[in-house]
Design brief:
Layout: E1 10-11, E2 22-24, E3 32-37, E4 43-47, E5 52-55, E6 63-64, E7 73-78, E8 84-88, E9 93-96, E10 104-105, E11 114-119, E12 125-129, E13 134-137, E14 145-146, E15 155-160, E16 166-170, E17 175-178, E18 186-188, E19 196-201, E20 207-211, E21 215-219, E22 227-228, E23 237-241, E24 248-252, E25 257-260, E26 268-270, E27 278-283, E28 289-293, E29 298-301, H1 312-315, E30 319-321, E31 328-332, E32 337-343, E33 348-354, E34 358-362, E35 369-377, E36 380-388
Antiparallel strand pairs: 1-33, 2-29, 3-4, 4-5, 5-6, 7-8, 8-9, 9-10, 11-12, 12-13, 13-14, 15-16, 16-17, 17-18, 19-20, 20-21, 21-22, 23-24, 24-25, 25-26, 27-28, 28-29, 30-31, 31-34, 32-33, 32-35, 35-36
């Protein structure tokens, strides 16, 4: 890539490809309830009637796997590329040791509906579900034992920040915490009676819980306090995932997708393009992620869910001058943005990240011709053409 000279911006190179959330062909109409990726290309989605799907090409194609059960499957996780677990209705626990080529039904000590599974290492795992059921294994799922967790409320999600420290959330605003590998649990004050559906921590101290009525709670002190966040929706929220400490995504009812780029200080609604419920979200990088939902819906984004369109309101905030130009071009923006210059064939030639209101870019190394400037902001993307004389 040619050297980029600019006056007031920081350089950042990245891959091309900026589509908004795109619907993928899952090959099923069964509701999908959970998604998990073991690497950038290999992922699994599970759902109703024993559905297990696998992709090995980052979601381009999905292959149905034989689960050996017709139970509703609510959650999937893997401890390595080969070893994975799925849980669901009627106490169902499934395990694979060959990357999903075959699944074996495990002996379960309960018939309660199981909602979430989490492993802290290859041996130690935890499952939560209806009526406050809590299961633990210390032998990679060979045996599961029922332990008391101090609540009979349905538990919908479990997450551990360390080998000994974990959280579970559920109905009636339930949040419980353990610091001794699940032997004892203490109730935390959530400040809500709304059902909580998903919990996720980005550090041992910073975590999020989401649920009905657009509820988002955040803690910065390991759950001592949970503070309600403003997110701009009252739709029920089903799943939260953070690919890094600042960037997070939440999905929920009626195609809801919301995103934060500042650790939950503000949340921005994204356009999913669907009205189906979205039940689970998983990002393999800050920009590449997947959401699954009812009727076999699978969505994918490769640009952090940015909405790509040239709407008049957004376009009016971006100005480029002079045009035509000779040696440089100034780009006036109202907020921080990523800026790309592409040739007429769509190949990225220059890429910068700008925190200032005006970016000045040296074009002296470009040949004469027509080029495209793409300005990528949190609330959308604007593309404009310019002529280099």
């Amino acid at each position: 890539m040619k050297k980029l000279t600019l006056s007031i911006c920081l350089m950042l190179f990245s891959a091309a490809g900026f589509s908004q959330w795109t619907a993928l062909n899952s090959g099923t109409t069964n509701d999908l309830l959970s998604i998990y990726f073991t690497d950038a290309n290999t992922g699994f989605a599970v759902g109703l009637w024993g559905t297990i799907l696998k992709t090995e090409n980052a979601g381009t194609t999905w292959t149905a796997q034989t689960s050996g059960t017709s139970e509703f499957l609510d959650a999937v996780t893997f401890t390595d590329t080969n070893t994975g677990y799925v849980v669901g209705g009627n106490g169902a626990i499934l395990k694979t040791i060959n990357g999903g080529n075959s699944w074996v039904v495990q002996t379960s000590p309960t018939t309660n509906y199981l909602r979430s599974v989490y492993f802290t290492d290859t041996q130690n795992g935890y499952i939560v579900g209806e009526s406050g059921i809590f299961l633990k294994t210390s032998d990679a799922g060979l045996t599961w034992n029922i332990l008391s967790c101090g609540t009979t409320n349905a538990l919908m999600s479990v997450y551990f920040t360390a080998a000994d420290t974990g959280y579970a959330v559920g109905y009636n605003g339930t949040i419980i915490k353990t610091t001794d590998r699940g032997l004892n649990w203490a109730a935390q004050n959530s400040g809500t009676t709304n059902a909580l559906q998903s919990v996720y921590f980005t550090t041992p101290a910073i975590g999020y819980a989401v649920g009905w009525g657009g509820t988002i709670l955040k803690t910065i002190n390991g759950g001592i306090n949970w503070i309600a966040q403003t997110c701009g929706t009252t739709n029920s929220l089903r799943s939260v995932n953070f690919p890094n400490i600042d960037t997070g995504y939440i999905v929920g009812g009626f195609g809801t997708i919301i995103k934060t780029m500042n650790a939950g200080t503000t949340w921005t609604t994204q356009t999913s393009g669907i009205n189906n419920w979205l039940n689970s979200v998983y990002f393999t990088s800050p920009n590449t992620g997947f959401a699954v939902g009812d009727s076999g819906q699978i969505l994918k984004s490769t640009n952090g869910g940015l909405f790509v369109e040239e709407n008049n309101l957004l376009e009016s905030t971006i100005n480029i001058f002079p045009n035509p130009t000779n040696d440089k071009i100034d780009i006036s923006i109202a907020q921080k943005a990523k800026i790309e210059i592409l040739n007429i064939n769509g190949l990225i030639i220059k890429a910068i990240y700008c925190n200032n209101k005006v970016a000045t870019i040296d074009l002296s190394d470009l040949s004469s011709g027509i080029y495209i400037i793409k300005v990528i902001k949190e609330n959308g993307i604007v593309t404009k053409k310019f002529i280099k004389e």
